[in-house]
Amino acid sequence: MRILIVGNGGREHALLWKLRADAPAAEFFATRPNPGMLPGCTPVDLAPTDVEGLAGWADANGISLTVVGPEIPLARGIADTFRRRGLPLFGPMAAAARIESSKAFAKELMKRLEVPTAAHACFRSFAEAEGFIRETPAPLVVKASGLAAGKGAIVCSSTEEALDAARAMLESGEFGEAGAEVVVEEFMEGEELSIFGITDGRHVTLLLPSQDHKPIGEGDTGPNTGGMGAYAPVPLASPGLVDEARDRIFLPVLDALERAATPFRGLLYAGLMVTPEGPKVVEFNCRFGDPETQVVLPLMESPLLELMVAVARGGRIDDTGTHWSTRTALNTVLASEGYPGDYEKGHEIQIPPELTERDDLLLFHAGTRTEGDRLVTSGGRVLSVVGLGRNLEEARARSLEGVEAIDFEGKTFRSDIGFRAFARDEA
Asked: Residues 291, 230: contact at Cβ < 8 Å?
């Protein structure tokens, strides 16, 4: 079997790691892989966004399965292009991927289906947004409707902050085309929860829930990032809550997309807020989340590959349940100083060799590259350090051991990943 992975970040490194474990005899290829991925795959010198180029390469090289990591190729129709050529690809077609590429589309879909989410309004002009913001009590959340690499949602504690955020998007173009339309919504109180669902368009297999930590600072302070760490399993995610998410969120959305002749086949990610009224949708994504993938897949004992192949070939999946390790995984992201704003690149990274030999620690590369024989930083999020343990405390301790052992100039991280679960245990 020949498998192509589109993408080259921490999520794609984790996907490669899991799929290699599922199919040790398979040949793996990846688009411009990071140094951590390189020992396990053959590089393909095409950009993840080169849809036509990738389709032609996959066709010419007899690729059995293509797995798409990032959202941009999906929004640009990579699944449409591959399927026109009869090439199996795991990921939704562009019309279904709008559930991530247009927050306005997703919010209107949920409103029509009565899927629980925050009350909202959508705007393309600042004048219209201003009137709504002034009439709606703070706190509010202002979101760029388009793709903004996980950084387009701004929590505003006052009316003036909300006005500034909307002005920056709609008048100053801070997020480019992604911010040409904004969603202004009520602030939801509660805990966030991420649930991945692998779906054939009608049936869905839910994976182990995880909890992401998006703000840059300890205690969830500061601007949002693509994610500074995650852990799984989450004590908050009871079987009853997961069943409620399946019945009230996943299944109605999948049914509506199928009835609209835009079935969603691939990985549907629901970012939820668990409120006193139950789980409500913060956002949908059309692909695996990062950094949640780095803690969910190491705990998955069932084959992921079988589900992906069935979906990619147009088959049906049976929700017979997946098997999970009894261990806990906690991921601490090492970032560049200044992220999610401007940051420097090219700082040398020192990783003790023994870290890569441990069975209780996994290291997934994200923003790294090589310069000669040196490993250097090349992105805002540089490495994911995943600790595995019998419980959350042990997993965190092992993750932080790895964090402390790795060194590069400007190393930035949060030492409090999982803090809500720890606080709940102490209460």
From this structure: yes
* CATH superfamily of domain region 125-180: ATP-grasp fold, A domain (3.30.1490.20)
Give SS3 for 142: strand
Domain ranges of the chain: 2-93, 125-180, 191-312, 328-426
| Phi, psi (rounded to 5 degrees) for 140 | -135, 160
CATH class of domain segment(s) 2-93: alpha beta
pLDDT in tens, 1-20: 999 999 999 999 999 999 99
Residue 222 has what DSSP assignment? E
Q: What is the chain's length?
A: 427
Task: Name the DSSP letter for residue 140.
Answer: E
Beta-strand ranges (E) seen in 366-419 are 368-371, 374-377, 381-389
**392: CB partners within 8 A, 6+ apart:** 231, 328, 330, 418, 421, 422, 425
Report the amino acid identity of residue 71.
E
| Per-residue 3-state assignment (H helix, E strand, C coil) for 308-325 | HHHHHCCCCCCCCCCCEC
First to last CA, the chain: 51
What fold does the segment set 328-426 form as a domain? Glycinamide Ribonucleotide Synthetase; Chain A, domain 4 (3.90.600)
Residue 173 has pLDDT above 60, yes or no: yes
Q: Could you tell me the CA-to-CA distances from 194 to 180, 350, 367, 368, 376 in Å, in that order?
A: 27, 32, 23, 26, 31
DSSP-assigned letter for residue 249: I
Which architecture does CATH list for 191-312?
2-Layer Sandwich (3.30)
Q: Which DSSP string do the residues of 177-246 spell out, in sequence order?
A: GGGSSEEEEEPPPSEEEEEEEEESSS-EEE---BEE--EEETTTEEEE-S-SEEEES-TT--HHHHHHHI
Residue corresponding to tokens 């209780």: 360
Q: The whole model's pTM is what? A: 0.95
Instruction: Encode pLDDT of 298-344 as tens digits.
Output: 999 999 999 999 999 999 998 667 999 999 999 999 999 999 999 99
Tokens at 237, concatenated: 């995610």
CA distance linking residue 45 with residue 41, whole number of Å: 12
- Tokens of residue 298, six digits: 């190491």
